[in-house]
Specification:
single chain; about 160 residues; alpha/beta; 5-stranded mixed beta sheet; 3 helices; about 25% helix
Length: about 160
């Protein structure tokens, strides 16, 4: 399994309900760090990017959400976004040009535009609704196979409940 698929599979196991936009982004960043550490890699939040900041801060550099050092493969850089930001895509393309594997974790409710290679998309679908305060809240449940409700021939069976 390649790294984009492995990260997607890891993130798809997350379960949360009614979280704000910043909270979901933070959950995805933390889960990405946990995934990397679980693989035996070093992970750094807000790692220095190869992209300098615009004037008057051109002596400083932008950051990526997660930088991952792997001993036997190129480093990974991961950006986590709810919005489709051109600046993020440009930053990830610059990181890839510098020899890193670039992953863009895009989360939300709709379809996500697939970026051009070498940037790889890790899509994360959520359900969104208006919360009690009127702001958007987001939820995600782990993918599970639907339970079998009836036999293919239309019959059914009674499954005893423990304690009956």
């Amino acid at each position: 399994m390649d790294v984009a698929e492995a990260l997607r599979a890891h993130l798809d196991r997350l379960v949360f309900a009614d979280r704000g936009t910043d909270e979901v982004t933070e959950l995805l960043i933390a889960a990405t760090v946990d995934w990397a550490v679980g693989e035996g890699w070093r992970a750094y939040r807000r790692a220095k990017s190869v992209v300098p900041l615009p004037p008057p801060y051109e002596q400083q550099f932008s950051v990526v959400d997660v930088g991952i050092a792997r001993p036997s493969a190129p480093p990974l850089v991961v950006e986590v976004d709810h919005a489709d930001r051109r600046r993020t895509l440009d930053k990830l393309a610059a990181e890839a040009a510098a020899g890193r594997e670039a992953l863009w974790v895009r989360w939300g409710t709709g379809r996500f535009a697939v970026p051009e290679r070498p940037v790889r998309l890790v899509a994360f679908q959520v359900i969104s609704r208006r919360g009690p305060s009127g702001s958007r809240v987001h939820s995600h449940t782990a993918e599970r196979a639907a339970p079998e409700h009836s036999a293919p021939d239309g019959s059914y069976r009674v499954v005893p409940i423990e304690g009956d």
